[in-house]
Design brief:
Largest sheet: none
Radius of gyration: 24 Å
Structural class: mainly alpha
Order of helices and strands: HHHHH
Number of strands: 0
Shape: extended
Strand content: under 5%
Helix content: over 70%
């Protein structure tokens, strides 16, 4: 890129990214391709059916549910004059929801016996752990909000009397 003018190099970097980003993107595509080939080699129809079902459940059931929940949170915080605080609810709720989605069979206790027979580990306690992780996520988010508010009040100039 030494022969190119700086302006052209800057345009390429803005549109494409750094060489490290390109390398990471190429590696991620290679890994996804490898995983796709391995996954589809055995029973491609069941995998395709699972993907279609997951997309439909997400788009028709889960998306409306968490959109309504998000609007309720933003609306209630907006009515109180603290709309900017919504992020401190969204992030822990999203992480907790993702954990629930991934570990739901074990959290619900439906497959605890099967899990124990397959792994030799106890399938009990996943609900308690998920609740604890959720409490820590919301507690950490509340702590960050309190620290942010304290820092904002320290920067505020004193009121003139």
């Amino acid at each position: 890129m030494r022969g190119l003018p700086r302006r052209s190099v800057r345009r390429i970097r803005v549109k494409v990214g750094s060489p490290l980003q390109l390398l990471l993107l190429a590696c991620s595509f290679a890994l996804a391709g490898y995983a796709g080939v391995r996954l589809l080699a055995d029973d491609w129809f069941q995998v395709a059916l699972w993907f279609v079902g997951a997309a439909l459940v997400h788009d028709l059931v889960l998306l409306p549910l968490y959109a309504v929940a998000d609007r309720a949170v933003v609306g209630s915080l907006g009515a109180a004059g603290h709309r900017g605080w919504a992020l401190y609810v969204r992030v822990p709720a999203a992480l907790s929801g993702l954990l629930l989605l991934v570990w739901f069979p074990l959290i619900s206790g439906r497959v605890a016996d099967h899990y124990a027979s397959a792994t030799g580990l106890s399938g009990e306690g996943f609900l308690a752990r998920w609740l604890l992780i959720t409490a820590v996520l919301f507690g950490g988010s509340a702590l960050l909000l309190v620290l942010r508010l304290r820092r904002a009040t320290k920067r505020r100039p004193p009121a003139a009397h």
